[in-house]
Design goal:
alpha+beta; four-stranded mixed β-sheet; three-stranded antiparallel β-sheet; 7 helices; about 20% helix
Length: about 325
């Protein structure tokens, strides 16, 4: 188990993007079947608001244009994945899904929540996969058609998806507008986007690990895009799954905290920085030009009224299983 603290980004509502090439974008599909406590229930105002936040966070990745092969179990081609229950009653509770269909250019993310009396915000993981059948099917499960995910020099990542657990004990802010300054609430949008970036391989993929280099202080990340953005190898935290404390990123040329560092303060909202996106490029994602966050945000606010039901780093931690 790898310890991760943290956490966002804005997005457009489901089905809406700024890109004319939306059909080529990666789609994140949320599955609520294991939401046993109804935290994301579509029959409650709070549940609908949280679903809206999930869609917001997912659209931070709509300009990723990799071609992911479909996973289509048939006949002798079968697979299953076991992962931490998204609404676990105890930390060790797991669930297995058999023969999940995953559409081309999409990832499936199971979500849920349960109460844990502590400061842990959430946990993300991709679980343990088993597959049987012809070699082509097994390769698809392992790589989603990304050849660099199996090369000796790992340069790519092709996930099926994963699961995210949220701590319902936390005092969450589930709005789309900015949190109130000085609030003691944890920003759900920040947390979801951070966890999705982990499921896309930040801190978890073999292609991430291949770019870590040990130095006297621990490890640095040596991906070419990230180094070009930062100016040197980028220090990572003790888990090697985040940027180290104190590493500063930028958005539109302005210095900002990175979304993918270990923690964020209550009442704060953060966005994926240019450095965060650069690292995702380095581990294999095709990332087109990233629009400046305020531009997307203003468009989003204009769209919220059409979809009436949608209505700065916080405390640690989030754990990735």
């Amino acid at each position: 188990m790898r310890l991760h603290h943290k956490i966002i980004q804005l997005a457009l509502l489901s089905g809406l993007t700024l890109s004319a090439n939306a059909a080529q974008a990666i789609e994140i599909v949320f599955d609520y079947r294991f939401d046993r406590h109804g935290w994301f229930s579509d029959s409650t105002t709070d549940g609908l608001a949280r679903r809206g936040v999930l869609q917001q966070a997912a659209s931070a990745f709509t300009h990723f244009s990799d071609s992911l092969s479909a996973i289509t179990p048939r006949d002798d081609n079968s697979w299953n994945v076991s992962f931490q229950h998204p609404s676990w009653a105890n930390w060790l509770e797991r669930v297995t899904v058999n023969n999940l269909d995953v559409a081309q250019d999409s990832m499936v993310v199971f979500v849920g929540a349960s109460s844990f009396n502590g400061s842990v915000l959430g946990a993300a993981g991709s679980g343990n996969v088993r597959a049987s059948g012809d070699q082509g099917f097994i390769d698809t499960i392992a790589t989603r058609g990304q050849q660099g995910a199996v090369d000796n020099a790992l340069t790519d990542f092709g996930p099926w998806g994963g699961s995210i657990w949220f701590n319902s004990h936390i005092n969450w802010y589930s709005g789309l507008d900015d949190p109130i300054a000085g609030s003691t609430q944890a920003d759900l949008l920040t947390t979801v986007t951070h966890e999705l970036a982990h499921l896309l391989g930040f801190g978890l993929a073999d292609s991430w690990n291949a770019l870590l280099q040990r130095n006297d202080q621990g490890y640095i990340f040596t991906g070419a895009n990230a180094v070009a953005e930062y100016g040197a190898g980028i220090p990572v935290d003790g888990s090697a799954g985040h940027w180290a404390y104190g590493v500063v990123g930028s958005i539109d040329g302005q210095p900002v905290p990175n979304l993918m560092d270990p923690s964020t303060a209550a009442g704060n909202r953060e966005y994926l920085s240019d450095l965060d996106y650069a690292a995702l490029r380095d581990i294999g994602w095709q990332v087109s030009a990233v629009p400046e966050p305020s531009t997307i945000w203003m468009l989003l606010l204009g769209l919220v009224g059409v979809f009436g039901r949608w209505r700065r780093k916080t405390r640690p931690l989030d754990l990735d299983a």
